[in-house]
Design brief:
two-stranded antiparallel sheet
Length: 85
Amino acid sequence: MEKRYLLILTLLLGLLPLFTFGTSAQQDTTRLRVVVNLVQLNVAVTDNKGNYVTGLHPLDFAITEDGTPENILHLKKGMVPQPDW
């Protein structure tokens, strides 16, 4: 369950720059429509000590958009060096 919350938090923080805050003097009337068939999500799962969790499979994740489950088409496993903080 903790993995799910971490994934949701990561997704929300990743989408935050897409929203603009405040108002502008001129209203932009440009419309852009895009069909997206594939979205890349980079996720790092750690335990409560900050160690990376390995051995995860697509069934260990739940991706939803507006409450609708989305399929995971590709899962690339990799390790990123931990920072020396």
